[in-house]
């Protein structure tokens, strides 16, 4: 089953804003994501990580190092209620532990951890289960944004002792020094950055216990709502992913979820998607996997994904990715 959960439009909006400076049309970046321009006008719109990653993949195709710039623009104010809760925390350590308690609100694709190591502490990002081709981008985006959050909370730059990454140095590796301002090691077996342990006890300039308690409680409730929706969406996706060869249709899927088609449609609309968009997304992800493995002929892939004709699959894949299946495999 695909690893996916709900998230906000923060990252997508940031991608669009970053490229807007260069006059690039939004539809180029949104291509294949199922996100419409109308969705961007609603602050409470929720999308799946697969939709977010489609936009990010479009961005990386245009600029390989874009993760470093996007992370730099992801300030603590981008996180809504969670951002206010972090700003009003008593210490940096309190704020980071709160952020790590609510990964759904943080919108991270990683398991973030604080690991003490002698006189220093590591903030690590592990357990990545999304598109391997976007691993470096997501690590850059995640760790740079976490460094920016720390700087925002402190009101000054958090001095780092070192940073490490579990992949080979990219061509633009010199830019890492601009973002982390410390020694950087690649192919290190882990992703993270380290700073002196004493910084966890550093009081925050905007600490306010009353506001913090109120914001922390609202974060708890919002997280419950988020995770409840995620569990429901995961179940829908799992059922649909198991039946790509013979998709059950909206009515059939609703029966399997023990609800009416109208209820299922309403829930999907509230999550910013539709039955067809979800089916296309799952078919696209599975098609990419089978094409990359190069074990099945294209007509067999079409059959397994429920297409009656290879030509129909070919047209759909071009719509999803912009290239034909044969070219994608090559």
Automatic annotation (TrEMBL):
Q: What is this protein called?
A: AraC family transcriptional regulator
Residue ranges of domain HTH araC/xylS-type in the record: 234-330
Q: What is the lineage of its organism?
A: Bacteria, Pseudomonadati, Pseudomonadota, Gammaproteobacteria, Pseudomonadales
Asked if Nucleotidyltransferase is a keyword of the record, the answer is: no
Q: Which InterPro entries match?
A: AraC-type_N (IPR032687), Homeodomain-like_sf (IPR009057), HTH_AraC (IPR018060)
Q: Which Pfam families match?
A: Arabinose_bd, HTH_18
Asked if the keyword Transcription belongs to this entry, the reply reads yes
Record organism: Pseudomonas pergaminensis
Determine the domain of life of the protein's source: Bacteria
SMART domains linked to this entry: HTH_ARAC
Q: Which UniProt keywords apply?
A: DNA-binding, Transcription, Transcription regulation
């Amino acid at each position: 089953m695909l690893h996916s959960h709900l998230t906000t439009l923060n990252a997508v909006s940031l991608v669009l804003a970053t490229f807007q400076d260069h006059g690039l049309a939004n539809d180029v970046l949104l291509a294949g994501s199922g996100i419409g321009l109308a969705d961007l006008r609603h602050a409470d719109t929720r999308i799946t990580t697969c939709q977010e990653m489609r936009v990010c993949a479009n961005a990386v195709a245009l600029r390989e190092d874009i993760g470093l710039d996007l992370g730099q623009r992801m300030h603590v104010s981008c996180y809504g209620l969670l951002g206010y809760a972090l700003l009003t925390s008593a210490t940096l350590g309190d704020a980071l532990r709160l952020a790590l308690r609510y990964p759904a609100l943080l919108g991270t694709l990683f398991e973030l951890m604080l690991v003490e190591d002698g006189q220093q502490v590591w903030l690590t990002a592990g357990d990545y289960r999304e598109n391997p081709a976007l691993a470096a981008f997501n690590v850059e985006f995640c760790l740079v944004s976490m460094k920016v959050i720390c700087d925002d909370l402190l009101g000054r730059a958090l001095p780092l002792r070192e940073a490490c990454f579990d992949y080979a140095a990219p061509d633009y590796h010199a830019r890492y020094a601009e973002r982390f301002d410390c020694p950087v090691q690649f192919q290190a077996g882990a992703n993270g950055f380290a700073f002196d342990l004493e910084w966890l006890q550093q009081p925050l300039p905007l600490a306010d216990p009353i506001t913090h308690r109120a914001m922390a409680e609202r974060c708890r409730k919002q997280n419950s709502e988020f995770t409840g929706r995620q569990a429901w969406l995961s179940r829908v996706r799992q059922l649909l992913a198991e039946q790509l060869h013979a998709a059950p249709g909206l009515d059939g899927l609703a029966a399997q979820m023990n609800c009416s088609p109208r209820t299922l449609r309403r829930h999907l609309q509230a999550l910013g998607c539709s039955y067809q968009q979800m089916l296309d997304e799952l078919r696209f992800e599975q098609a990419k996997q089978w094409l990359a493995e190069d074990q099945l002929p294209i007509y067999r892939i079409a059959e397994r994904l429920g297409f009656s004709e290879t030509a129909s699959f070919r047209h759909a894949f071009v719509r999803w990715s912009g290239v034909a299946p044969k070219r994608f495999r090559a």
